[in-house]
Specification:
4 helices, 85% helix, mainly alpha
């Protein structure tokens, strides 16, 4: 009997997962059930809608974009550091060669 319920539940999940257009009410519903405060749930829903209206994206999409930007910035910093290292090593190599030539010319 339990196996039958599990299989039916999985079938429902597979076929009905496209019915959920937005999970905007999921957070406030959970807040309402867990805390019992309708004000807190209303604030949660209202802030989510205000963010969506202002940016055109949900809160999770905004957070994902922020993390993606941080990764891009980190990659740019690494590339700049590598370029700086290359310049530094080239500078040191030319200085060593000049010093070596000066030392050789004075010893002869």
């Amino acid at each position: 009997m339990i196996l039958k319920k599990i299989i039916i539940g999985l079938i429902y999940i597979c076929f009905l997962n496209g019915c959920v257009q937005s999970t905007t009410l999921l957070g406030p519903a959970y807040t309402l059930v867990s805390t019992g405060s309708i004000y807190q749930a209303g604030l949660s829903y209202g802030s989510e809608e205000a963010i969506k209206k202002a940016t055109g994206k949900s809160t999770t999409e905004n957070i994902k974009r922020i993390f993606d930007q941080e990764e891009i910035i980190k990659e740019e910093i690494i590339v700049k550091e590598e370029e700086n290292y290359d310049d530094f090593f080239a500078l040191v190599k030319t200085r060593v060669n000049k010093t070596h030539k000066i030392i050789n010319s004075t010893n002869q």
